Amino acid sequence: MDRIRVFMSGLVMMVTCVGCCVSAGELHKVTTMVELQQALAAASKGREITLASGDYGLLSVRDLKAPLVLRSADPTRPARFSGMVLRNVSNVTIDGVVFDYTYQLGDKKYLRPFQILSSTGVMIRNSLFDGDLWRGGGVTDDGFSTAFGLGVRFSSDITLEGNEIRNFYRGTVISQSQNVVVRGTNMHSLRMDGMNFTEVSDVLIEKNHIHDFTRSVDSEDHADMIQFWTNGTKSPSRNITIRDNLLNSGKGWYTQSIFMRNEMVDRGLAGHEMFYRNVTIKNNMIINAHLHGITVGETDGLIIQNNTVVRNFRSEGKRKNKTLWIPQIRVKGSSRNVELSRNITSKIDGYDGQLGWSVHDNFFAQDSERGKAGFYGYVFDSTVLSDPSQPEAFVPRKGGPLDGMGLGAQQPVL
Questions:
Q1: What distance in Å separates the CA atoms of residue 398 and residue 190, rounded to the nearest whole number?
Q2: What are the per-10-residue average pLDDT scores of the chain (414 residues)?
């Protein structure tokens, strides 16, 4: 495990440098869509463009290798785009704008109005991705969020920092990409998924607040806050760090929280070559009401450490299935080189004395049986029994068994 820690430490140093500010050329101010198009057409040698408040329609930048900065001149009155395609570009920074999707009759739920494709060195920061509601019919769809907030594919050195993403079917969908940072995102009011990843490497997900989904619980949605998968892929995701995030169902319905199923392996379609590689999940506060608090499929090199995985009973589902609504930490038993330590959770599933696993100093807490060990009212602040949607309620109770132990996520995590 020491080898893994050294490797991941180097990874963090590398990915935190991704997406540094580009140095563009001349400064150019625009006030209309036509002026912006003219400025972009003349940006082959690099340019910084400031945008007056207003609607600029579709932002389309293709085949640009020179540095480009686009930013709102007045962050309190940001420029707005109805769509975005960045294709085959390098060294582009977008700062302080609004990406505003409006539903049109006939749009699909999986529409991607904002995309980064085959690009490198792109940063989007301090911006708002604002979705819309479906109005195309169907009782499980009407009035619920639709489309994807941001799609990234075949790209590298991508940084998303300090953004808000709301009112979409899915927040971000990132695939077949490398050196990705998602930091400081406020993600909420989503219908199904927060962040989706597949076939990615060198990814840092940190200090994000994912919360209060607006779900269509009578649909067939399987909602996740952070999800990785391998279904239909040819290579596994690797070198993943998920740390210092607050995942809170809040006043919304339950979701799966961190869910990394490895379908290619568990369905018998692949072997060790498709195991996830080098995954660290650390210091995350997870407040939710579904069995899959942290669930990780077949992995080689896994650290799950100092996470708090607790239940918000107000978010549980309609079915009478007590176990289903209690978050756990679950790891596939065939995983290799695993450390599970210093977590607070109701249960750890998957460990059965396997060689190469280190499982220690975990604390088991529960809100089901007063008088039994680990009862929330004995180990956390007294407000936890009345309102478990507040992170402050899960501060260790003074004089309780967690006081001064340094277990679980260390608040604040953002």
A1: 36
A2: 41 40 70 96 93 98 96 97 98 98 95 98 98 92 96 98 98 98 98 98 98 96 97 97 98 97 97 98 98 98 98 93 95 98 98 97 96 96 94 95 96 63
Strands 132-133 and 145-146: antiparallel
Token pair 């107000």 in the structure block, residue: 314
- The torsion defined by the Cα of 329, 333, 337 and 339, in degrees rounded to 10, comes to 20
> How far apart, in Å, do the first and last CA atoms of the chain sit?
27
Q: Alpha helices of 17-65 — where are they, by DSSP H?
A: 33-41
C-alpha of 211 from chain center: 11
Beta sheet of 79-81, edge-to-edge order: 54-55, 79-81, 98-100, 128-130, 164-166, 186-188, 209-211, 246-248, 285-288, 308-311, 344-345, 363-364
Q: Which residues pair with 248 in a beta bridge?
A: 211, 287
Q: Extract the tokens encoding 20.
A: 């540094």
Give CA–CA dist 94/100, Å, rounded.
15
Q: How many residues are given for the chain?
A: 414
**Interatomic CA distance for residues 240 and 367, integer angstroms:** 32
Specify the amino acid at residue 268: G
List all residues 6 or more positions away from 185 whose beta carbon is below 8 Å from its beta carbon: 160, 161, 162, 163, 164, 165, 171, 208, 209, 210
- pTM comes to 0.93
Q: Classify residue 308 by burial, with Cβ atoms within 10 Å: 0-12, 13-18, 19+.
A: buried
